[in-house]
């Protein structure tokens, strides 16, 4: 795939894979570092998960995903509508992107890889902005999970 279709990030987290996995795969904890209220929610393959975004300036948005795969201590993936921030727009007819987190144990911690793919299928009038905004968003989220793991 070309670079317009996907975002790829990785970060080395100095913590055991089991701890990084709990931070990633427990929906409530995910919400704490990601900026979405997911109290009482769970990530279950094939099921939707949603909650209000808590990040300043985006509180009017409901974060909505459909969990794709949950492979303990290895992979979590979900589908969503990227940069779907207009509460007056129905994005349900648009294709989704696939967000995949993969964990790999290292000698001194865990390598967390993130790939969000499928941007080439997003409608042309939204594609470039969704790719740009999510690209910057994932930069921030990689820092957020690293900070959260280190402080909890």
Structure, explained:
With 152 residues, the protein is an alpha+beta fold. The chain has a single domain (6-151), classed as 2-Layer Sandwich (Alpha-D-Glucose-1,6-Bisphosphate, Chain A, domain 4), CATH 3.30.530. It has 3 helices and 6 strands; from the N terminus they run βααβββββα. The protein has helices spanning 17-25, 27-34, 124-151, and strands spanning 6-13, 48-52, 62-71, 75-80, 97-106, 109-117. A 6-stranded antiparallel sheet has the order 1-6-5-4-3-2, covered by helices on one side. β3 and β4 (75-80) form a beta hairpin. α1 crosses α2 (27-34) and α2 crosses α3 (124-151). The radius of gyration is 15 Å and the shape is globular. The model has no long low-confidence stretch (mean pLDDT 96).
What labels would you give this structure?
152 residues, alpha+beta, Alpha-D-Glucose-1,6-Bisphosphate, Chain A, domain 4, six-stranded antiparallel sheet, 3 helices, methyltransferase, ASHA1/2-like_C
Question: How many DSSP helices?
Answer: 3
**Over all CA atoms, what is the radius of gyration?**
15 Å
Strand content: 25-35%
Within CATH, the superfamily carries the name: START domain
Query: What is the domain total for the residues?
Result: 1
Could you describe the largest sheet, including whether it forms a barrel? 6 strands, antiparallel
């Amino acid at each position: 795939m070309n670079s317009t279709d996907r975002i790829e990030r990785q970060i080395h987290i100095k913590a055991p894979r089991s701890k990084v996995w709990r931070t990633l795969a427990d929906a409530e904890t995910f919400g704490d570092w990601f900026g979405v209220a997911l109290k009482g929610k769970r990530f279950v393959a094939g099921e939707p998960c949603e909650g209000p975004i808590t990040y300043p300036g985006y509180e009017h948005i409901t974060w909505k995903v459909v969990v794709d795969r949950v492979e303990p201590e290895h992979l979590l993936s979900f589908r969503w509508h990227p940069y779907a921030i207009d509460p007056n727009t129905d994005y349900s007819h648009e294709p989704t992107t696939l967000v995949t987190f993969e964990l790999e144990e290292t000698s001194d911690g865990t390598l967390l890889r993130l790939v969000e793919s499928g941007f080439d299928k997003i409608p042309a009038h939204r594609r470039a902005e969704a790719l740009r905004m999510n690209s910057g968003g994932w930069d921030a989220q990689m820092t957020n999970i690293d900070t959260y793991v280190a402080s909890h």
